[in-house]
Design brief:
Elements: H1 2-20, E1 25-27, E2 31-38, E3 43-52, E4 60-65, E5 70-74, E6 84-92, E7 99-109, E8 115-125
Parallel strand pairs: 2-8
Antiparallel strand pairs: 1-3, 3-6, 4-7, 5-6, 7-8
């Protein structure tokens, strides 16, 4: 019985230690507002910078946009502890109705917090 309890305690300690040493993503900002722009220039780009504030390498597994008009591109290689990476988001309003929009980009990582949402928004005015 003592052996069993000792093994359980070691496993619990190992799991707790592994969780403390995980990667952790921290974005400089999670919302970007393009402001007002014309339908004549419907393509807008934002860059979100993040830092791995954890102790293990950070890997972005996926970046999924809420709409086909929004395309994310992200740093593919593992980000070492203390280093930075980027998520570049391009919005294409061509063929979309003018007006206010707000889109989300879901980032999935191997980090302590596995999912982060980024947002872009703006107001596209009608071309005259």
């Amino acid at each position: 019985m003592k052996k069993f309890l000792t093994i359980i305690m070691l496993l619990v300690a190992a799991v707790a230690n592994a969780q403390q040493n995980q990667a952790e993503i921290k974005f400089d900002k999670t919302v970007h507002n393009f402001g007002t722009f014309s339908e004549k220039s419907p393509v807008q780009t934002a860059v979100f910078t993040f830092t791995n504030i954890g102790k293990e390498p950070l890997i972005i597994n996926q970046a999924i946009a809420s709409c086909g008009c929004t395309v994310p591109a992200y740093t593919k290689e593992p980000i070492q502890a203390g280093k930075t990476g980027t998520v570049k988001v391009t919005y294409n309003g061509k063929g979309k109705f003018p007006g206010h929009f707000k889109k989300s980009i879901t980032i999935r990582t191997n980090g302590k917090v596995e999912m982060v949402r980024l947002y872009i928004e703006g107001n596209m005015t009608e071309a005259k």
